[in-house]
Amino acid sequence: MNMSHPTPPATLIDVRSPGEFASGHLAGAINLPLDQLQHSIGRTVPDVATPLVLYCASGARSAFACGLLQQLGYTQVSNGGGVGLLAMQLQRAIVRG
């Protein structure tokens, strides 16, 4: 019998500023602004094998952040792009606050 192991859900990380995050972010996302990411990621996501999906407004900051996390040893990092498109792709609500 071939039993497949379920893929753990990815942690959503919004790399925009706190103000941008408050104006609308994906439900369940964690806000780690790009300028704080390198110093905060180890406390927030200590396991470098955790699947991560990073996003921002357009995908540019999250692309940079993906490279940074890969340099720090994170192995399952992907760029989700912009918040609006990712919300549609994941069928996840955008919440304020």
UniProtKB/TrEMBL annotation:
InterPro entries: GlpE_sulfurtransferase, Rhodanese-like_dom, Rhodanese-like_dom_sf. SMART domains: RHOD (SM00450). One of its GO terms (molecular function) is transferase activity. Residues 6-94 form the Rhodanese domain. This is Sulfurtransferase. The keyword RNA-binding does not apply. It comes from the Bacteria. Keywords: Transferase. SUPFAM superfamilies: Rhodanese/Cell cycle control phosphatase.
